[in-house]
Amino acid sequence: MHNTQVRVGRLITLYILFVIIGAVLLGRLFLLMLFPRVSDTGDGRVVRVPRWQLDEEHFHLQLTSDARGWIEFQNGHRWLSRRLIGQTGGKPLSPAVVAPEIVGSIGLPDIWPSRDKVVAEQGRSGLEYTFDPILSGRRPGVTGHVVAAKVANGTAVHGLPATAFTLTPIRGKNVVTTIDESRQRLAESLLQKTGARHASIVSISLRSDDIGVLASADHESSDALRAIAPGSIFKLVTAAAALETHTYLSNARFTCRGLIRVPHVDMHCWRVHGQLSLREAIAQSCDVTFATIGIKLGRMPMLVQAQRFGILESGIAPYDGREVIANATAGAVYKQSGADLGLLANTAIGQEDVRMSPLQGAVLAATIAMGGEHHRARLVKGFTDDSGRFTPLYPDARDTVGLRACSGFTASVLRDGMWVAVHRREGTAYALHRFPIVAKTGTAELPNGHVNAWLIGYQMHEGTPVSAFSVCVADEPSWLAHKHLYQLATAWFKSL
């Protein structure tokens, strides 16, 4: 209520100011009409300005600033959105639009005139939309001046001083994001070079839970925020459910003969694995092992475990109870009812109705890296005003206790399997073993014969996890998807 009163008061003040300025200028015109001025033309002639020519004076207004705050990168550079009016405020302006689907666009307001807006513009999508009340200016920047009249023969009249004024803007606040501008540009460049239509790179700092990179090949609808079939990376969730419910012990043994038969489904593994431990099944991504686990678990444990890992939400820490990015989609485990064995087997290996976004994949990897403690990722740090004063949006994430997604022991089993996946020859990600990463691969088969190729995990530095990542190439033929995935992953890890 107080904020509304303040806004109304500011609008009334602005209106009164314009009325006063207009009255002063009209009064001046009235006096000139009654008392015509005499002026020297500069060539020795004296010219009397007739009253009927004084209406040739014109009062001009020009909007110099919409007073709207800016979306900023982590380094303070202005993140360019699709706007037409605005000043950089003395800070560098990014030369090209980066991730336009994230920063968003500006357009005409839903309601105009509006008591809440002094300029006819509104955030229409992305961060510009979510934080529109914060970004909107309180008073625009305006300049005004009076153009002097001319005499009948076209000679300019001297001695009539120009009237001008300037209205300084009261700017909205700037929104400071967590995005690392240079890393984001590099990721988008790598995605463009592959030529993949749908691909993404996501990076999350494990120290702060800040999203440093949220890059997509498709800027119409963010690839990084779109929930798609995850394939075998969901086996991490299935393994966690098996251990958390004590359905299986960590030293359980499994046998893969390359095929598992269930009613209406003959599931073939991608190769015959023979005898496996749970850690080895994670590293070698054995379909038979996890289908067996899923059938024994039943429907609810996998759903509950996915919820604890944050897969059933967007993965981004909300603002004021709302999603920071409106089109960020939540994941899913089941879209259809029932608990037939075929459904359970396919769900356990990340097929059927399972959906996850690359961002959620990175959050899953971050949770495992941090010993099972789940934190939502942060996209916005806070706000700055004209004086540079910073107001944080959230408390420091690592000063707060996260949700317990799984026990520390369960997380250690998952980490062991992911380490073997990269650093042992039998692992599915061994091609990346020269990099200090711990990871899990995934391939989801699609109805059109294409696949989604995934890699999620975390980077190590001196034996400590420092950042979680997700690299994904979606909806391509299998050979091309995996080629693009390893090209992206290799180029990305080389740059770290």
TrEMBL record:
This is Penicillin-binding transpeptidase domain-containing protein. Keywords: Membrane, Transmembrane, Transmembrane helix. It comes from the Bacteria. SUPFAM superfamilies: beta-lactamase/transpeptidase-like. Residues 227-477 form the Penicillin-binding protein transpeptidase domain. Pfam families: Transpeptidase (PF00905). The chain crosses the membrane at residues 12-35.
